[in-house]
Amino acid sequence: MSEIGQPPDTIDNRRVARGLGSTILGRLGAVIEIVAQPLYVVMFGLAGYGLYAVLWAAVNLIENIFDLGMTSAMQRTVPQSASHADAAEALRTALLFGVGPCILVATGISLSADQIAPLLNVAAEDQALVTPAIRLFVWTLPLWALVEITTSALRARMVFGPEIRLRIMWEQMMRLGFAALFFAMGMGLRGLFIAHIISLTLTAILCVRLLQRYYQFAELRRGKLWGKTAQDTVRAGLAILPSNVIARLFGDSPALILNLLLPGAAGARAAGLFTIARKLSSVVQLVRIAFVYVMAPLAASAEKADRAQVKAIYSYALRLVLAIAFPLAAVLAAGRSSLLSLFGDQAQVAQAAVAILLFARAIEALLGISVPVLQVISAYRHQLTASLIGVLGALVAAWLLVGRIDPLTGITLAMSFGIVVMAGIPMLQLMINDGLHPFDRRFPAVAMTVMAISLGAGAAAWLASGLPDPAAIPAVVFIAAAAIWASLRFALPFDDRASLGKVGRKMRLVPAGLADS
Questions:
Q1: N or C, which end of the chain has less CB nearby within 10 Å?
Q2: Could you give the C-alpha distances from 199 to 55, 139, 147, 476, in angstroms and in order?
Q3: Can you say whether the dihedral through the CA atoms of 80, 84, 86, 92 is positive or negative?
Q4: How far apart are CA 339 and CA 357, in angstroms?
Q5: Taking the CB of residue 16, how many other CB atoms lie within 10 A of it?
């Protein structure tokens, strides 16, 4: 136990690559979730799926407000903890301040379900379900806060792999399995809500059990309740809270806004369509999330040792994000009509929204690699600037667009503009305030090669989308994988590819024997 979670003396590209590989595997639950969405639409209809999407979006948004930033706070305080007692103090503080308020809020919402239900626009056949669904589903709020904080605590210990089992085997596959079972039993849309809360309960139990391997739970009962580490954790959480809330607003509020803008079943369907577009774009967002999860604790440890290490991993991460995110976005955008066919013909109206979100997420992934670096090395006051300007940009864009074009495309464009602005400003802040930027002499050549490969792969995917759907979808997936491989192989410098170790050799990115295991 004494060695667990202790950072190495040197934080280098290999350390980033190892953490990144485990984290991407852990986040593959998001891919399984994407695959599950067409099945939910088939089983429960687009309007029913839209109601589910609205309630889950509301839970995510409320959780990000009332967890008081504790998930992000642990990325700053735990890696810099001097002892296991300090780490346990940070964990105890995060649980008290992160889960406690969510329990209180869930209680209030459950008691007020009758007053909240009329605010939601749903299909007539789902109207009677709304109030009981709110009363039941709101209890995912503290469960989700617990899952988010415990998995964040694992990442803060630089333990990235365990999310593989939690995110794939339980959170997603169990949910899909229970939903299909309850649908077969004739429970209808209610079965989907029950399946969600059961799978999340199991995930929370497993998270707590897993956490015992990396934290000394006995220390949770000892020490000061309000010591220095606790104070630092709360201060860090409250400092990053506005940014976290605003980031979540960009992801979840459009579904809520569309539901409120359009009456009846149209509001539920619009929310469902936006959620479909967002789920498809989350394949690209997965790249950013994986890097953010890894970069935050590693940058905090590197900053503690040497600022030069931060600059090195910052530049490396930027090149790797560029090589993965842009070819992926180009191929998926070009083949979007085939992908949307999985959700039925009614989903084709979301084509523009899908393309907009895919490229917005690719740009966000590239620029946003600066966000975790800013969070752990800069003053707290610098972290709110990007969020405020991003929200202002999104509001201005929404004011200019909504009413002039269809609501789905207008809201998506406005949100995407805000996302890009919010991702780009931290990079400027690091350059101006800290003299830190990720652009070295190798970046222009990498960028030009990646763009050329992305254009070629996008053209190939556009041609493939003209095939019948059973052939087009596998072709688009194959082209995406081939484009990412070509981008990694031909755009990245040799030392970047060699840092991928066994993965790089197995993918033939470097000759066998030239990369360390």
A1: C
A2: 16, 12, 12, 31
A3: positive
A4: 14
A5: 23
Q: What is the pLDDT of residues 458-504, one digit of tens each?
A: 999 999 999 998 899 999 999 999 999 999 999 988 888 887 777 77
Q: How many domains does one find in the chain?
A: 1
Q: What is the pTM of this model?
A: 0.78
CA angle 274, 276, 278 (to 5 degrees): 70
Q: Residue with structure tokens 């707290």?
A: 380
CA–CA separation, 374 and 181 (whole Å) = 45
Do residues 178 and 199 touch, judged by C-beta distance below 8 A? Answer: yes
Do the domain assignments include residue 406? Answer: yes
Encode pLDDT of 242-300 as tens digits: 878 887 888 888 999 999 888 888 888 899 999 888 888 888 887 777 777 666 666 66
Does some domain include residue 2? no
The whole domain housing 194 covers: 13-506
Which residues contact residue 320 at a Cβ distance below 8 angstroms, ignoring those fewer than 6 apart? 20, 291, 492, 496
Closest CA to 325 of 284, 289, 386, 357: 284
Q: Alpha-carbon dihedral of residues 148, 64, 247, 434, nearest 10 degrees?
A: -70
- At residue 153, φ and ψ (nearest 5 deg) are -65, -35
Q: Tally the residues of the chain.
A: 517
**CA 5 to the chain's CA centroid:** 23
Report the candidate in 364, 337, 367 with the shortest Cα–Cα distance to residue 352: 337
Average pLDDT for 349-356: 93
